[in-house]
Design brief:
9% of the residues lie in helices and 52% in strands. The chain has eight helices and 49 strands. The strands form eleven sheets. It has a 22-stranded antiparallel β-barrel. The chain has a five-stranded mixed sheet with strand order 3-8-9-6-7. α6 crosses α7 (536-545).
Length: 891
């Protein structure tokens, strides 16, 4: 791995500046050392601070003793801040963390690094875990947010200890374990809130003697959407309605200090109307910025949106201490069965938009909206993933603490996707149905820390990973062109009652299907049930049975019958059909991850550390096309991180407080961006068809400073402060600008040089302040907290509001250049502050807890991600304002 001179210089300058800050901070901390007469009281508080445990380095250790940047939020923290069964809300409390949800797929970015590829070929860039077990498809991960011990967020690559896809860091959900000994215990909780929210949560702990215990936990929540339907078809409910349930059964057996056996079975179900998206393309073209309109006011049409996600998993851990050497096995299995219907919409409303009903067959110039359009997306995604890890490690008190082992991962996927264009002419939709997607990865690793003396420790690690992927199925467009007298007839497809075949399709073999009859038959096999007003089956049936080689002509006002007539013989004057092609692809890669570093205790309360570490995100392959039967592959992305930091405990107003700071530099290489490839030529050999592929054409540089502090005041007040300065820059990346793609002209697309742009979702400044207070009364304790989270502006895509160049031909002749907003692609999310708050009262005996909570109290609508393309600019937003109350009975 080579680093440019400019990058080395910038890294050196940054490291020097940070080192000076660290030494200054440590000197200040030591100067504030506690007087002897206050030491006993402060030690009690210091123990409390050190009691926050994390498992970032695969060992339980105090967060304050971990030589790196991480945060941990307990279940009480999450409840108090209104972070309830909604993973996206977690980013409010963690600077540098961005979480969005597109079609049920959770996208996690840390310090601007992550991945938005949610296809069966994609992988996350920040590795999600549950109890340390890797989760490859984090759909429904928010359904694990109940009866937790804590949530850990580690910032920076973790390739050595966590493996592939820990490029940006890790997110680990740690569930509450059964409690040994004692009596039967648990809690029951009920809650109500705005948006007709109701829910409950419970946990029951069953001791089985002194050495074993069972724990059952479950929750259910129902909640109305934050979005609203602004159109005339009020029978369509907006996206975002929740109806979620989950349950978990855990078992723990520890007969002595040597053996520990843990097992957990969990199930979950997500129901609702799908995940919210706001289309701002037309509003932007009409001259309105996203800040000028109500982003949650959307015009819906077509079918009702729906999501149905069924998931379950099992994991187990067996540990045995042989005396000086510990053996541990971790295994997990996770099954996800996700189905979604994306309700159609015509984007957001804006002042003056005509929302009236357009008469059937009337042109767009007539005004109003054609509500009788069923442009719908169907997604069926299944995953069965298993992980196995065997580790040997030394005791935690050994001078040389080491861990070594092996890891194996295997995932089978089955994915069906259909995007319909109702009333299409020559194009009626796209289908990608993949019944066999296979991914495997294995790794061998070793990591160790050696105590040079009582103060100095050196550490290092190495991990070798081998990964393979393959896929078989079909993918491509449904092309249906039907000629008539005076023009081309449209095809109605996907109206009320329509059901696609998707993974139940009887045939995935398209080899040799060249006749119209063969292609028509193949298209019809993709439909289980035709919609009430569909015409496709009638139009194609004559071709299939041979009675009408050009298909049966149907003349109706809603398919062009006002301007196009049927020929006298009842057949179309011509027919043009196209079907998806077979998709076969595979890739294989191997790579090394490593880390080196040191830790130095300036005192018992002051830790100085520095590390260099790497991480990789899995590579893969692209779709295959007729002109390119062997799909193009792309390599794993690689990130090398340099970090120097310090963690300090000190006396402030006679109480123990903390101040931690770190500086980091990332070299992000082999970065994947979407680019353009040719998939069709005309008879003269000119390119007439284009498609987007993933390519390693990018390179970026990131650096910054992160600081956090916990200050304890008198009277039960605590103030937590966390600040992040982040600078990102794309150093290389010339790619196709999908905003300019012109499908009416063969799909020609201009190119754009991204050099100098910022990475998406990377704010320069993030600042959190959390004030907590607790006061004791005769009947119990009252506590409250307020979190204010500021985040400066950021771009939603790599295009950074750059102008859009539209081409006239494939020779690169410029037709016109438009600024991003005029073209329909405003790209910047303005800076904002979000406020969450909570208050509660716990009775003296701890049996009852009464709480009020609120999240996003000022109801900011914040774009967390954008999906852009030709004529498409869809924003995925944060959750709308939520507030409520809950009552919990502990027994």
């Amino acid at each position: 791995m080579k680093v440019s001179k400019q990058a080395r210089a910038r890294c050196s300058n940054l490291s020097f500046a940070i080192f000076a800050v660290l030494l200054a901070g440590q000197a200040a901390a030591q100067d504030a050392a506690a007087p002897a007469d206050t030491k006993a009281a402060s030690d009690t508080q210091a123990t409390d601070l050190d009691s926050v445990i994390v498992t970032v380095e695969r060992r339980e250790q105090s967060l304050q003793k971990y030589a790196g940047t991480a945060q941990a939020l307990s279940q009480d923290d999450l409840r108090g801040l209104g972070i309830n069964n909604e993973l996206r809300q977690l980013q409010v409390a963690v600077p540098g963390l961005s979480i969005a949800n597109q079609e049920g797929a959770t996208e996690v970015f840390i310090r601007g690094v992550g991945s938005s590829n949610n296809t069966e070929l994609g992988d996350p860039g920040a590795a999600p875990h549950v109890n340390g077990a890797y989760i490859p498809r984090p759909r429904g991960l928010g359904g694990m947010f109940y009866d937790l011990e804590r949530v850990e967020i580690n910032k920076g690559p973790q390739g050595t200890l966590r493996g592939r896809n820990a490029l940006a860091g890790t997110l680990n959900i740690v569930t509450k374990r059964p409690e040994l000994g004692g009596d039967f215990s648990g809690y029951v909780q009920g809650e109500v809130g705005n948006r007709d929210q109701t829910g409950y949560e419970t946990a029951l702990n069953f001791p089985l003697g002194d050495y074993a215990a069972l724990r059952f936990a479950g929750y259910h929540i129902e909640k109305e959407a934050g979005f609203k339907n602004a159109g005339l078809y009020q029978h369509l409910k907006p996206a975002g309605i929740q109806d979620d349930s989950a349950g978990r059964l855990s078992f723990l057996y520890e007969p002595d200090d040597k053996l520990s056996v843990f097992a957990m079975l969990d199930v979950g179900r997500e129901l609702g109307t799908g995940y919210p998206g706001a289309g701002v393309f037309e509003a932007a073209q009409a001259g309105f910025k996203p800040d000028d309109i109500d982003m949650r006011s959307v015009v819906y049409r077509g079918v009702q949106g729906k999501v149905d996600n069924k998931l379950w998993g099992f994991q187990g851990t067996v540990r045995y201490d042989f005396g000086g050497v510990n053996l541990e096995y971790n295994g997990s299995y996770r099954d996800v069965d996700y189905f979604q219907i994306n309700s159609g919409s015509v984007g957001n409303t804006w002042p003056g938009r005509d929302l009236s009903l357009r008469p059937p067959g009337a042109p767009a110039s007539a005004g109003g909206i054609d509500y009788d359009v069923f442009n719908t997306n169907y997604l069926q995604a299944r995953s069965q993933a298993q992980t196995h890890e065997l580790r040997l490690s030394s005791d935690d008190d050994a001078r040389f603490r080491w861990t070594t082992g092996g890891f194996y991962f295997h995932e089978k996927q089955q994915v069906g996707f259909m995007s319909l264009t109702d009333k299409g002419a020559f194009y009626s939709g796209t289908e990608f149905t993949m019944p066999d997607v296979d991914g495997k990865s294995w790794a061998a690793f070793g990591d160790g820390t050696f105590d040079v003396n009582e103060r100095l420790r050196v550490k290092g690690g190495l991990r070798y990973t081998d990964e393979r992927k393959s896929r078989d199925g079909i993918g491509g467009n449904w092309t249906i062109g039907l000629g008539g007298d005076g023009g081309v007839f449209q095809t109605r497809l996907g109206t009320e009652g329509f059901k696609p075949t998707l993974l139940d399709r009887p045939n995935f073999n398209t080899t040799g299907l060249t006749s119209n009859a063969d292609m028509a038959r193949f298209l019809l096999q993709g439909i289980v049930q035709a919609g009430a007003r569909d015409t496709m089956q009638q139009q194609l049936q004559g071709i299939v049975d041979g009675s009408r080689p050009n298909g049966t002509c149907i003349d109706r006002p809603d398919i062009g019958g006002n301007t196009v007539d049927c020929p006298a013989n009842g057949q179309h004057s011509f027919i043009a059909l196209g079907i998806p092609s077979e998709q076969h692809g595979s890739s294989a890669f191997d790579f090394l991850d490593w880390r080196v570093g040191f830790e130095y205790d300036l005192s018992d309360r002051n830790l100085l550390y520095a590390t260099v570490s790497t991480g990789h995100k899995a590579g893969g392959f692209n779709d295959s096309f007729d002109v390119n039967a062997i799909p193009e592959t792309y390599k794993p992305e690689e990130l090398t991180a340099f970090e120097i930091g310090s963690k300090n405990s000190f006396e402030f107003l006679g109480r123990t407080s903390t101040f931690n700071i770190s500086g980091f530099y990332y070299d992000y290489a082999d970065q994947v961006f979407q680019d353009l490839t040719v998939i069709a030529f005309n008879p003269d050999g000119e390119a007439t068809g284009f498609a987007l592929v993933n390519r390693n054409v990018g390179k970026s540089e990131l650096y910054g400073i992160e600081a956090e502090s916990r200050l304890r005041f008198g009277g039960g007040f605590t103030l937590d402060l966390n600040a992040l300065y982040l600078q990102t820059e794309i150093k290389k990346g010339v790619v196709a600008d999908v905003r300019s793609q012109d499908f009416g002209n063969g799909g020609i697309t201009s190119q754009i040089d991204l050099t100098g742009n910022e990475l998406p979702l990377s704010s320069k400044f993030t600042f959190n302040a959390r004030l907590q207070h607790a006061i004791d009364f005769s009947r119990g304790t009252f506590d409250w907290q307020v979190l204010a989270a500021y985040r400066s502006s950021f771009f939603l895509t790599q295009y950074n509001d750059r102008d859009v160049t539209f081409l006239r031909d494939t020779q690169g002749t410029v037709d016109r250049i438009e600024d991003a907003a005029t073209a329909g692609f405003p790209d910047e999310q303005k800076g904002f502050t979000q406020i969450n708050a909570g208050a509660g009262f716990t009775t003296l005996d701890g049996a009852w807890r009464f709480e009020l909570w609120g999240s996003n109290l000022t109801n900011k609508d914040v774009s967390q991600k954008a999906l852009v393309g030709s004529g498409v600019n869809v924003r995925f937003l944060n959750d709308a304002r939520s507030y409520g109350m809950r009552v919990r009975w502990n027994f």
